[in-house]
Design a protein that fits this description.
Number of domains of chain A: 2
Strand content of chain A: 25-35%
Shape of chain B: globular
Helix content of chain B: 25-40%
Number of strands of chain B: 18
CATH topology of the largest domain in chain A: Alpha-Beta Plaits
CATH architecture of the largest domain in chain B: 3-Layer(aba) Sandwich
Helix content of chain A: 25-40%
Order of helices and strands of chain A: EHEEHEEHEEHEEH
CATH superfamily of the largest domain in chain A: ACT domain
Oligomer: heterodimer
Largest interface: A-B, 28 and 33 residues
Number of domains of chain B: 4
Number of strands of chain A: 9
Number of helices of chain A: 5
CATH class of the largest domain in chain B: Alpha Beta
Strand order of the largest sheet of chain B: 2-1-3-4-6-5
Structural class of chain B: alpha/beta
CATH superfamily of the largest domain in chain B: Thiamin diphosphate (ThDP)-binding fold, Pyr/PP domains
Shape of chain A: elongated
Structural class of chain A: alpha+beta
Largest sheet of chain B: 6 strands, parallel
Chain lengths: ~200, ~600
């Protein structure tokens, strides 16, 4: 059966760019009691399609249930469960760190070690932009904490499946062919076309 | 050809004047074969009601409250399996639909709700009678729309109808701002979308199900609301394998009650045979159901010995509540037919004998009370009659005592448990099938929630709706719980001193009324009520305190059911013998009462 231990799982959801689509998804999570840890949304290469990455905290059963409930939403085009294929994920964080004349050099040195960029320079604070996976960002913030963090903002994790999956026998990850080198979505047909053809299996 | 006969060269109908969004709405509904809609007009939907006068091919049924209208549309849909349509205005009209939408969502009823809204430039300004109805109904609809451009309106209606009735059906709401209704429309009127094929289950899953069934010694089939359209196939399946069938509250009628394989309804007020069979079975074949908590009882005590096969269209229902050993996702019709093809006639004499013994434990009401009254009424039903019920004790009694031979003859609010559902649903069903008797059994509490729809009976001179009110002067089901689980502290359940005279109430709407208060009066009153050429009301006055049994208390497993009324058993015991009551357990009392 499913692993009862809760952990963070990544889902990418491609949705039609219709009014309230974000509400539909978050409301579904809310009313069924699924826990969203982070969520980020943006446009895609296809007009009319947005993509979101959601980090769901829960055991495998909860996440599978969430996926099936999401699939029933009319505006959801596709759901990618990143636990089934290799993926890359990134998160960006802006961190504003308090500095004094004494600490200035050390703060900059740590930032350099993390290959972080300075995006704003002030007499009493420096703002850094750090990109990476969750571990790196957490480490960065922990390193800066003793100097005094004034504010931070994280984008939430975003993810894509690895193109290099094509080299790896896909059955290692799941049954069926690898989806990695196929366009995730072919674009949206006109409203009447999609209404005719798409079986809406609630 | 010319404009003289109302058509121009393109075949466009000029007699209806210039095409607008509102007219396109009616034309689209008519194109989809929708003959009847239920609704209630108001400010923001007036262009639609104006356009209605140009479309006599669609009949509009005026209710007396939007909730009545939407339940009538549900009754229409549940009886026919076709989509029900309901119209309301913005704001309060729209919010009055919410209960019906939630009800349709829970019971998977194909429903199209159309609401007016304020003009687009007023939306979001807290305009008069403005409500964010798409926001409000988001969790209780399968999908909903705001039409922001008249060019999209007919397509959205066509799409909404398709969504509502495809796959697992459900309600769809389309909100149309008033200026969109009035805007001129030049486009085409869409024809119905072809219904996409329901995917067939995979051969592998069927194979696994077959293997499991072949290994069974004590199999049982459990059919839910999703199996109503595959009733023929499921009946063939059960008979070919000789497997007993349980039908859930929503699935009653999916398997003929006259068949000896039928065990009745499972769950909180299920039959002894159904609940015991689930608890003992080694293979449980679930078809089109979602293992509702009222069906399963305590989940870890549900079918503790069984491997579970679950045939279901909605993937989200598989494994949601109960661990499924063999999921079969797809059309129940195809799945049942495939499992029938390779059937092996069962040889399980001990299982059959055991089930016969359990079936013998089902009690028939033999003394005056709600159960007796319900039995007397449902015994008079023909297989074609439609029986609706409201929600409460009488609903469970109907489900226990009525014998349905075919699907879609039993309408009730199963998932949401909506009081006030029964009567308007019976009107909707009665209008869908005017040649069939549409009988509703309701409680004195629930009937008063939508009693205003008596006016609908009068207005349309509906003659086939027969209302039976089981009047125990209490909110009976709540009272039963208060008696059993809240130390008899009866809190706000007594209606007796303030109930209306139901016969006078009916008379006020020119609906004939009949009353029975005893075993002796009942047969005559039922005769007069059913033989009345008009729709009529029968009030059956029954004792105040009467429980529904068998019962599985909340939180208990199905095998922990209380099989018969402990009070009644105690009464019988007192009449019978002298042993002090409190030394015997409920089970022993029940056992003794049965043997007596």
């Amino acid at each position: 059966m499913t692993d009862p231990v809760p952990y963070d799982q990544l889902l990418s959801i491609l949705v039609r760019d219709e009014p309230r689509v974000l509400t539909r998804i978050t409301a579904l999570f809310g009313r069924r009691g699924y826990n969203i840890k982070s969520l980020s949304v943006g446009n895609t290469e296809h007009p009319g399609v947005s993509r979101m990455t959601i980090v769901v905290h829960g055991d495998r059963g909860v996440v599978e249930q969430a996926i099936r409930q999401l699939e029933k939403l009319h505006d959801v085009v596709k759901i990618i469960d990143h636990s089934l294929e290799k993926y890359v994920d990134r998160e960006l964080v802006l961190v504003k760190v308090a500095i004094t004349p004494e600490s200035r050099v050390e703060v900059r040195q740590i930032a350099e070690d993390f290959r972080s960029r300075i995006v704003d320079v002030g007499r009493h604070a420096l703002t850094f932009e750090v990109t990476g996976d969750e571990g790196k960002l957490t480490a960065f913030i922990e390193q800066m904490r003793p100097f005094g963090i004034l504010e931070t903002m994280r984008t939430g994790r975003i993810a894509l499946t690895r193109g290099s999956n094509a080299d790896i026998a896909s059955h290692i990850y799941h049954e069926g062919e690898s989806e990695a080198l196929r366009p995730v979505v072919e674009g949206l047909e006109a409203r009447e076309e999609r209404a005719r053809g798409v079986p809406n299996l609630f | 050809m010319g404009q003289a006969d109302g058509q121009d060269q393109q075949g466009k109908d000029l007699s209806r004047g210039e095409m607008t969004g509102a007219k396109a709405l009616w034309a689209t509904l008519a194109n989809h074969g929708i003959s009847t809609v239920f609704g209630y007009p108001g400010g923001a939907i007036m262009p639609v009601y104006d356009a209605l006068t140009y479309y006599p091919e669609v009949r509009h049924v005026l209710g007396r409250h939007e909730q009545g209208s939407i339940h009538a549309a549900e009754g229409w849909a549940k009886a026919t399996g076709e989509i029900g349509v309901c119209i309301a205005t913005s704001g309060p009209g729209a919010t009055n639909l919410v209960t019906g939408l939630a009800d349709a969502m829970m019971d998977s009823v194909p429903l199209l709700a159309i609401t007016g809204n304020v003009a687009r430039h007023l939306m979001g300004t807290d305009a008069f009678q403005e409500a964010d109805i798409t926001g409000i109904t988001l969790p209780v609809t399968k999908h909903n729309y705001v039409v922001r451009d008249v060019e999209e309106l007919p397509q959205i209606i066509a799409e909404a109808i398709r969504i509502a009735r495809t796959g697992r059906p459900g309600p769809v709401l389309v909100d149309i701002p008033k200026d969109v209704q009035m805007a001129p429309y030049a486009g085409e009127i869409p024809t119905p979308h072809a219904r996409p094929e329901i995917p067939a289950p995979s051969d592998e899953s069927i194979q696994r199900a077959l293997e499991l069934l072949k290994s069974a010694k004590k199999p049982v089939i459990m059919a839910g609301g999703g199996s109503l359209d595959s009733s023929t196939e499921i009946t063939a399946l059960a008979r070919a394998w000789d497997i007993p069938v349980i039908t859930t509250l929503m699935g009653l009628g999916a398997f003929p009650a006259s068949d000896p394989l039928w065990l009745g309804m499972p769950g909180m007020h299920g039959s002894v045979a159904a609940n015991r069979a689930i608890s003992e079975a080694d293979v449980l074949l679930g078809i089109g159901l979602r293992f509702d908590d009222r069906v399963t009882g305590r989940v870890n005590g549900f079918a503790p010995n069984a491997a579970i096969i679950h045939i279901e269209l909605d993937a989200a229902e598989i494994g949601k509540i109960i661990r499924t050993h063999v999921p079969v996702r797809g059309d129940a019709k195809v799945a049942a037919a495939k499992l029938t093809e390779n059937a092996v006639k069962g040889v399980w004499p001990e299982w059959t004998a055991q089930i016969t013994e359990w079936k013998g434990r089902n009690e028939t009401p033999d003394h005056w009370g709600a159960g007796y009254a319900v039995k007397a009424v449902v015994d008079r039903l023909t297989p074609d009659d439609i029986l609706s019920s409201d929600v409460g004790q009488h609903q469970m009694l109907c489900a226990q005592l009525a014998r349905f031979e075919k699907p879609r003859r039993w309408l009730n609010s199963g998932g949401l448990g909506t009081m006030g559902f029964g009567f308007p649903a019976a009107i909707g069903a009665g209008m869908a099938e005017p040649d069939v008797r549409s009988i509703v059994i309701a409680g004195d509490g629930g009937f008063q929630m939508t009693a205003q729809e008596l006016a609908t009976l009068k207005m349309y001179d509906i003659r086939n709706v027969k209302i039976c009110i089981i009047n125990n002067s209490y909110l009976g089901m709540v009272r039963q719980w208060q008696e059993m689980f809240h130390g008899k502290r009866y809190s706000e359940v007594w209606l007796g001193d303030s109930n209306p005279d139901f016969l006078k109430l009916a008379d006020a709407y020119d609906v004939p009324g009949y009353r029975a208060s005893s075993i002796e009066e009942l047969p005559g009153a039922i005769d007069a009520w059913l033989n009345d050429p008009k729709s009529a009301l029968l009030e059956v006055v029954v004792p105040h305190e009467h429980g529904v049994f068998p019962m599985v208390p909340a939180g208990a497993a199905l095998y922990e059911m209380i099989e018969s009324d402990p009070k009644r058993a105690a009464q019988l015991k007192e009449q019978l013998a002298d042993a002090p009551m409190n030394t015997a357990s409920i089970e022993e009392i029940a056992e003794e009462a049965r043997n007596a």
